[in-house]
Specification:
318 residues, 42% helix, Helitron helicase-like domain-containing protein, 3-stranded antiparallel β-sheet
Length: 318
């Protein structure tokens, strides 16, 4: 399908999402993805075209499934269960999580990772496309969304869980949720993650939507109490503002590197807008207490500023 046909709304050849046996019918989703990710610039930088392609693909799919529902007397909710907005889809996910809770107990850690796009490392091909199209960050809807989502997934699966890489390669040994027992065997640790897009508010009379649509990830970590204690969370996490002394030492060690990079990153992203840190004041260094609870250094100043805990390695990387 050509771009002209897509823009003109020619849906005669896209009544279904799947390719036809004759090889002539293609889905809008595949056609648009091929154009947006091709070497030709411009297809992936138009918000209007992206929204149009999504709406056309969605309504074409709904139309095809409605016809199937009528012809074969199959409920629409069953036909739509593969879509992530379907109630049946999330009901299946809910059942899977309930099963995981029965096996491993309630999740021990809930974490949200959101990027700061203006300082996040971008791939060279995205920076090249920005330069050629004279666009800035947050102005390439397709490329940036795919890149940021990919990076966040790799951070969670790799840096956090150590589960990236092909078989036969050396496994991760320094991932942040690494949990070894006394015999150097790995404790069982399971993750559930969900990619979401920053929502806004929708005005009912006009259906105007002004959410930013920026991707972020929510993570649930399932592990036993022993596995949690075996993790080096007291070393990997921080709930206090990096001190100027520590920054000065880091600057000296790195031979002239900016001293307050980490402090500025924390100050710019980890202060809750409502002033709620969600963490009790703790003046001792990070440690596990006798009841198996993690205690993080969190001063009165941190509490008043609404400073939220963070992974130091992730903060330095993203």
């Amino acid at each position: 399908m050509s771009l002209e046909g897509l823009v003109d709304g020619d849906v005669s050849s896209i009544e279904a999402d799947e390719e036809g046996d004759d090889g002539k019918r293609h889905s809008v989703k595949r056609s648009y993805a091929a154009l947006a990710l091709s070497a030709c610039l411009g297809y992936g930088s138009s918000y209007d075209l992206l929204h149009f392609a999504y709406d056309l693909s969605l309504w074409s799919s709904l139309g095809a499934k409605k016809k199937t529902s009528t012809d074969y007397d199959v409920p629409m909710r069953v036909l739509m269960k593969g879509h992530s907005f379907s109630p049946l889809y999330w009901k299946a996910v809910h059942w899977a999580l309930i099963d995981l809770v029965r096996q491993m107990g309630y999740p021990k850690i809930f974490w949200t990772i959101s990027p700061y796009e203006f300082s996040m490392p971008y791939a060279d091909w995205i920076l090249d496309e920005m330069a050629k199209e004279l666009r800035g960050r947050l102005d390439l809807p397709v490329a940036e969304t795919l890149h940021i989502t990919h990076v966040l997934l790799q951070v969670v699966r790799g840096l956090l869980a150590g589960q990236t890489g092909k078989r036969g390669r050396d496994p991760w040994i320094q991932h942040l949720l690494r949990a070894k027992d006394g015999h150097d065997n790995d404790h069982v640790v399971r993750l559930f993650l969900r990619v979401e897009f920053q929502d806004g508010t929708r005005k009912a009379p006009t259906q105007d939507y002004h959410g930013s649509g920026r991707p972020h990830i929510h993570v649930l970590v399932f592990a036993s109490d022993d596995a949690l204690l075996a993790m080096s969370l007291d070393k990997a996490l921080s709930a206090t503002m990096p001190s100027s002394r520590a920054s000065a030492e880091a600057e000296e060690a790195q031979q002239g590197a900016p001293a307050d990079v980490l402090a500025e990153a924390v100050r710019g992203s980890q202060l809750d807008r409502g002033g709620r840190s969600g963490w009790p004041v703790q003046l001792e260094d990070n440690h596990w207490d006798e009841e198996g609870r993690l205690r993080l250094l969190h001063t009165e100043e941190d509490k008043e500023a609404g400073l939220r805990p963070y992974f130091v390695d992730i903060m330095e990387a993203l």
